[in-house]
Amino acid sequence: MKDDGFMMIDSVLAMLIFSIILTVLVPGMIMLNHTLSDSGRLLEYSRRLYVDMLEYEDFQSFAGASHNYRIEKDRICDKNNPKLCVQIE
Q1: Over the stretch 44-81, which tens digit does the pLDDT of each residue have?
Q2: How many CB atoms lie within 10 A of CB 77?
Q3: Which regions span the lipid bilayer (predicted)?
């Protein structure tokens, strides 16, 4: 019975460590998972764009014939998802 104060401090310290894990690490893991899925979608889009561009001789013929892409002055975007864009020079 003489160690009851230590057991309470130990429990509070364990709850503090557990709350730090929940408030810092879990949102970090969610952010990393979201970033990974976004980069995977962008990579798949870039691969599809590259394969589609290989079918044409030059960029002008690609720009005139492509119906799946929105071509702006400095980037090529997907018509269905405007967040998927690739910068061009």
Answers
A1: 999 999 999 999 888 888 888 888 899 888 899 998 88
A2: 17
A3: 12-32
CB atoms within 10 A of CB 87: 7
Name residue 66's amino acid: S
Q: How many CA atoms, within 13 angstroms, populate the side-chain half-sphere of residue 81?
A: 9
DSSP-derived pairing of the beta strands 75-78 and 85-87? antiparallel
Largest CA distance in the chain: 85
R_g over Cα of the chain: 26
Measuring CA to CA, which residue among 72, 73, 76 is closest to residue 49?
A: 76
pTM given for the model: 0.69
Could you give the CA distance from residue 22 to residue 16 in angstroms, rounded to a whole number?
10
Taking a C-beta distance cutoff of 8 angstroms, is the pair 45, 84 a contact?
yes
